[in-house]
Amino acid sequence: MPSHPEIPRHIAIIMDGNGRWAKERGMPRLEGHRAGAESVREVMESCIKLGVEYLTLYAFSSENWSRPATEVTALMGLLNRFLAEKAKELDRQGVRLLAIGQLDRLPETTRKLVQKIQEQTAHHTTMTLVLALSYGGREEIVSAARSLAEDAVAGIIHPEAIDGELFASRLQTAGIPDPDLLIRTSGEMRVSNFLLWQISYAEMVIVKTFWPDFRQGHLMDAVAEYQRRHRRFGAL
Ligand code: IPE
Ligand code: IPE
Ligand code: MG
Questions:
Q1: How confident is the model at residue 1 (pLDDT cuts 50, 70, 90)?
Q2: Which of 18, 23, 30, 40 maximizes ligand 1 atoms within 8 Å of its Cβ, making it the mutation to test the pocket?
Q3: Which ligand is nearest to the CA of 71?
Q4: What's the sign of the alpha-carbon dihedral 41, 45, 47, 52?
Q5: Residue pLDDT, tens place only, 95-115
Q6: CATH label of the domain that carries residue 215
Q7: CB within 5 A of ion ligand 3: which residues?
Q8: Nearest ligand to the C-alpha of residue 192?
Q9: CA neighbor of 54 nearest in space, from 174, 234, 142
């Protein structure tokens, strides 16, 4: 018997290995990123079918800005295309889009597109797709700390009133339950600045598969692995 046969409410994915997938095939890295878009489509469909409420995808990290300009530009181009193409589909699927990260660092076209789709899909309830764009967990935590400090200095809150709940309410993920399941593809055993606060009790599943090869079956396997885990949250 699985310890908790329920479906994770929130799945977060570090979509890694696009470059290596392409390299293995003697293709430019960009082809790996392009192929990864199909994995996103399939994983979204599967999550909707399973009844997952929140799917968070790590698409671009704060640190990814340090990649060569050609790759950054190409990634932003792909992101624009993905968003433009997805807008209608999200509407059809009843999916709400939410972007987290330092969105002001994104090119204006991307930022505007994200904003427009967020507004268009705000009323949807089937699933929330959280896209982490120019996202860094440390940056998010620092920004929450800064906002609390500003309020404390202005006398709006008392430092003693700051607890975990108040802190979490200043994160960009305010109102979203913490991820139950964190998946990372391509075999790397690290979190790379993703949702540092939110993953404190997430069950981690690391798969060797590169992201462009990740399919519905891999997601089902990860969920089955999650269901075999015994979540204790520090208790017995
Ligand atoms: C993940 O694939 C996509 C992004 C980080 C944008 P990578 O580009 O990191 O691919 P690898 O890890 O170099 O293979
Ligand atoms: C993490 O992958 C970021 C995303 C998947 C968007 P990276 O490829 O950037 O992480 P590192 O450099 O291997 O830690
Ligand atoms: Mg990588």
A1: very low
A2: 18
A3: 1
A4: positive
A5: 999 999 999 999 999 999 999
A6: 3.40.1180.10
A7: 16
A8: 2
A9: 174
CA of 12 to the centre of ligand 2 (A): 14
> Which residue range forms the structural domain that includes residue 17?
10-139+179-228
pLDDT of res. 4: 62
pTM: 0.97
Q: Does residue 152 belong to any structural domain of this protein?
A: no
Measured from CB, residues less than 6 Å from any atom of ligand 2 are 14-16, 58-61, 64, 188, 190, 192
Residues contacting 117, CB < 8 A, separation 6+:
83, 86, 87, 90, 97
Verify whether residue 178 is a known catalytic residue: no
CB 139 within 8 A of CB 62: yes
Q: How confident is the model at residue 5 (pLDDT cuts 50, 70, 90)?
A: confident
Provide the pLDDT for residue 182: 99
